[in-house]
Specification:
By secondary structure, the protein is an all-alpha fold. It has 18 helices and 2 strands. A two-stranded antiparallel sheet has the order 1-2. A hairpin with a 2-residue loop joins strand 1 and strand 2. The longest helix has about 35 residues. Its main location: membrane.
């Protein structure tokens, strides 16, 4: 096996964590530039345009989350089989997961396109932005298959421990998106300006290039993945295992996405100005927690490979160190955001004073508690890497539906705080959720799961198919 894979189960933990997480963090930063670039250029069209994009994002994220759990399942299985040095099962898992992901992408793309207007009306979007938001949403849903495909490629490579090539691919496509956004939004020469929907056209175009490039790399066989046509014969035993891991991960991500949509529902009741404030603050939040998400993904890979290799003490040490690093990094980021809140907001909305002043309050309310998000995400990464996607799902449900949304509703609608009541639920919910996550981690049962130990009947089915693929 390539050195990049085996080295993750030995040597200094901090070195492994940093070498794996930094490329993931940079790739995630660049990936988030799609949304930030959209917000930057759409912001030049005014507050209503920003609100139209902002109100659409949680619904897009919801559809992505519904299918995204299967990429988590694929990455976890690939990581544990890589740690166990079982390359045949790595190939088999990859083929089966790709089939499931593309089927899910096609179904969700169609569903999202047909229901865009109804979904926006359901959450109470005002008529002044409904048209732009609907068009932006439909265009975005049309390209879900490209987004899912690239996410699947990233997940497979991450499970293998190879994170540099996805960084190179996303670097090129983000730069291209930076050029295409103003071209499609405002138009130039023979290309007409499409306004808000132009941002979605630019994103779909560049994401399709990213997916095709990634698959060319994957199918080359250079990184140990060797596809055969027989490998895409449905293996219902393996699919059942992928679904068992993927469905809780999908529910977890959907819970967060649906929670975002419900928060938009609360926010929309206070008018378009508050929607724009929430949109800017949420985009900055999604950007500044990227280091935590990168560490979470790296932790999942490291924990998965070490559990697959049977090295449980090292898996536990990885999780603890990752949580400490994430807490420290996000605390520093939060302090910087608190101190420089106004310049950050003005970068996205330079001329709308009402949006700027409101978004500064929102950002300062959240910023000093970012460290808690970091620690929680790192521990959740350990749970995913060990195959405990059900526990990650339960933590997400408790965080959103027991803590955050009920508090947001009570503080905003039944006190005199108004929108500020919504802003304050972020630090409160983060504190409570981190406490629950830490308690479960310290309990210790999460590290005892090893998903490469199959049921006998599933093993025989998988091996029969692998034999027919010609890999033995």
């Amino acid at each position: 096996m390539p050195a990049t894979r085996s080295s993750l189960t030995e040597g200094p933990i901090l070195k492994s964590l940093v070498s794996l997480s930094l490329p993931i963090v940079f790739a995630n930063v660049l990936q988030s530039m799609y949304q930030l670039t959209d917000t930057f250029w759409v912001g030049r069209l005014g507050g209503n345009a920003v609100a139209a994009v902002s109100v659409s994002f949680p619904l897009i994220f919801l559809m992505i989350a519904l299918g995204g759990g299967f990429t988590v399942a694929g990455s976890t299985l690939v990581a544990q089989y890589t740690g166990a040095k079982n390359s045949k099962m790595v190939n088999h898992v990859t083929s089966q997961t790709l089939m499931i992901v593309f089927f899910a992408a096609a179904c969700l793309s169609l569903l999202g396109f047909l229901s865009s207007g109804a979904l926006l009306r359901l959450i109470g979007v005002e008529k002044v932005i409904l048209g732009d938001a609907t068009t932006y949403l439909r265009v975005s849903f049309s390209g879900l298959i490209f987004l899912f495909g690239y996410f699947m490629y990233q997940s497979i490579m991450r499970g293998l421990g190879e994170v540099r090539v996805p960084l190179y691919i996303v670097s090129g496509t983000v730069l291209l998106n930076l050029l295409l956004d103003p071209l499609f939004i405002f138009g130039w020469g023979p290309i007409p300006g499409s306004g808000v929907s132009g941002a979605a056209y630019a994103t779909i175009g560049t994401q399709s290039i990213a997916m095709l490039t990634g698959f060319c790399v994957l199918f080359s066989g250079r990184y140990g993945i060797h596809f055969r046509l027989a490998g895409f014969r449905p293996d219902f035993g393996m699919m059942k295992r992928i679904l068992k891991l993927g469905l809780p991960a999908s529910i977890e991500q959907s819970t967060r996405a649906l929670g975002m949509s419900m928060m938009i529902f609360l926010v929309a009741g206070f008018g378009t100005l508050t929607v724009a404030i929430f949109g800017i603050g949420s985009r900055i939040l999604s950007f500044v927690i990227i280091p935590a998400l990168g560490l979470s993904m790296a932790t999942a890979t490291l924990v998965g490979q070490n559990i697959g290799a049977g090295n449980l003490p090292r898996a536990n040490s990885i999780a603890r160190l990752s949580a400490l690093v994430a807490f420290a990094a996000l605390t520093v980021v939060g302090i910087l955001c608190f101190c420089f809140a106004q310049p950050l907001i003005r970068f996205f909305v330079p001329s709308d004073e009402a949006v700027v002043s409101g978004a500064v309050i929102f950002l300062k309310t959240m910023a000093l508690f970012f460290g808690l998000i970091g620690a929680q995400q790192a521990l959740i990464g350990a749970f995913r890497g060990s195959g405990n996607t059900f526990m990650s799902m339960m933590l997400a449900i408790v965080s959103m539906w027991v803590f955050q949304f009920p508090l947001a509703y009570i503080l905003s609608r039944h006190t005199g705080m108004g929108p500020r009541g919504i802003w304050w639920t972020y630090p409160i919910a983060n504190f409570l959720s981190t406490a629950v996550t830490l308690a479960w981690f310290l309990q210790g049962s999460w590290q005892k799961k090893r998903i490469t130990e199959e049921a006998p009947e599933e093993t025989s089915v998988s091996e029969e198919i692998i034999t027919q693929e010609g890999l033995r």
